[in-house]
Amino acid sequence: MAKSNHITRAGWQQLDQELKFLWKEERPKVTQAVSDAAALGDRSENAEYIYGKKRLREIDRRVRFLSKRLETLKIVDYHPNQEGKVFFGAWVELENENNEIKQYRIVGCDEFSPSKNWISIDSPVARALIGKQVDDEVRVETPSGMAIFYINRIWYEKE
Length: 159
Known about the structure:
This protein is of the alpha/beta class and 159 residues long. Helix content is 39%, strand content 25%.
């Protein structure tokens, strides 16, 4: 399945800042370090030169990815019409059959973060939640079987 091109405004800004940092600060610094290491002579056994060249390739690869990705991403801002239903950017409080409560935010695949409880719009849970309302029952097929959740609360961060 193709990944979606949706992203929050804050997520887009974070990727844009990373691109600018890599291009304007990190790459020139590493380029200078490689140049300095190359001036020392034998490059075949020069660890700083070898590591610097490797780091430059990593930076260039990430810069290319970010440049292309930022062009295709669509920023999805909060709209008052979303209130009461689960859409992109929503925080959702779910309760399972064991009365365990969890909160998730639905974000783009470029910004999902398990440590923040941010799940990708492309995940099975997020796809099952889209369009639902408080008190709806949501069924999600998981690797361990069918999971049933109840929506307790829906809210949005107005960025």
